[in-house]
Amino acid sequence: MIEGIYLDNNATTMVAPEVVEEMLPYFTEQFGNPSSLHQFGDKVGRALKTARKQIQTLLGAEHDSEIIFTSCGTESDSTAILSALRAQPDRKEIITTVVEHPAVLTLCENLEKDGYKVHYLKVDKRGRLDMQEYKSLLSDKVAVVSVMWANNETGTLFPVEEMAVWAHEASVMFHTDAVQAVGKVPLNLKESSIDMLSLSGHKLHAPKGVGVLYLRRGVRFRPLLRGGHQERGRRAGTENVTSIIGLGKAAEMAMESMEYEHTFVQAMRDRLEQGILESVPHAFVTGDPRNRLPNTCNIAFEYIEGEAILLLLNKMGIAASSGSACTSGSLEPSHVMRAMDIPYTAAHGSIRFSLSRYNKMEDVEKVIEAVPPIVAQLRKLSPYWGEDGPVEEPEKAFAPTYA
Ligand code: PLP
């Protein structure tokens, strides 16, 4: 089991022991190619069908043929967006948000170079979208809307089901990157207008290197990978059978533990947040605290660097993650923190704690004890922190360094 305290489950999760157990026979005893017509292939083909059904159930999809296995969330995102563009060559616009994962943002930036017009919906200080702006952009020039279900840094949830209805009213395809939402929020796709959805195995206690693209029946589609007839010709390449079988089991377990996520995991997250905020001054929650994933909290510690906090936490065996990305020697706050207009003095010190059902309340109590002395120690070294509080106008003093 896990050594240390792992609170970085939005980055990746431990593969559940039950999932590993389910996978093992498919490396050695049941190693056939699911497309082969002999008994070796047939057994594996049937196991693949079971996994497809398990995913269908988790997503609340109409039919198991709507499940396409891919290699990861990134592949599912690319396939969805590129398919929508290729299937409707007369439509040259995309609507997305400024806070998407790079899996969508980097693709969109490249599509702009190819001549597509991308509309990036902005967010407010709490990370919420402006629905009026969204509605005003929908038109018959738009090929696809791609909006994440839950933000990976803050956990903030977007009203994608409602947004998909508006997209359909304007005859526009709707895709959602639900990589962080699947397994943490209940889904019922057959009752929604969502056309395409991406998920990734390693975020829900299945292995890395396996994902799913949900494709509603009847939605026009162009494959990204062409070749063999696997996945009904929609994604060529022999399936990653063992991981898919693991993902099926993980989906079944996610269904069973959904209530636990919204009771015990959420209670641990709330206790962690309350414990830290009570004992650390000049710290606040980023994102929308009333509308977010049950496992995620992102706290901005003003006047210090997130990386320094992470390093000291790591020394104590505690793993979390920061909202900054180290690019070319300078620490820039993440695009999500910048989009929410979090002041520089706080955006640099944002830490994401993301929990799972494998965490324990006693671990949370240990983290609550560990954080305040670390923050106090770092603030003593900060030029923006005086004897017993921030120096005057820290905002102005801090900003030019990172401008
Ligand atoms: N989308 C979101 C919201 C994510 O958080 C991630 C991974 O962190 C991805 C996409 C990419 O998933 P994968 O690592 O499976 O490619």
Strand order of the largest sheet: 2-8-7-6-5-3-4
Detail the poorly predicted runs: 396-403
- Which percent range fits the helix content? 40-55%
Number of strands: 15
Give the SSE string.
EHHHEHEHEHEHEEEHHHEEHEEEEHHEHH
Which ions, cofactors or small ligands are bound in this entry?
pyridoxal-5'-phosphate
Give the amount of beta strand, in percent: 15-25%
Tags for this entry?
403 residues, alpha/beta, 7-stranded mixed sheet, 4-stranded antiparallel sheet, 15 helices, 15 strands, 41% helix, disordered C terminus, binds pyridoxal-5'-phosphate
Plain-language structure description:
It is a single chain. 41% of the residues lie in helices and 15% in strands. It contains 15 helices and 15 strands. A seven-stranded mixed sheet has the order 2-8-7-6-5-3-4, sandwiched between helices. A hairpin with a 2-residue loop joins strand 13 and strand 14. It is globular, with a radius of gyration of 22 Å. Pyridoxal-5'-phosphate binds next to helix 4.
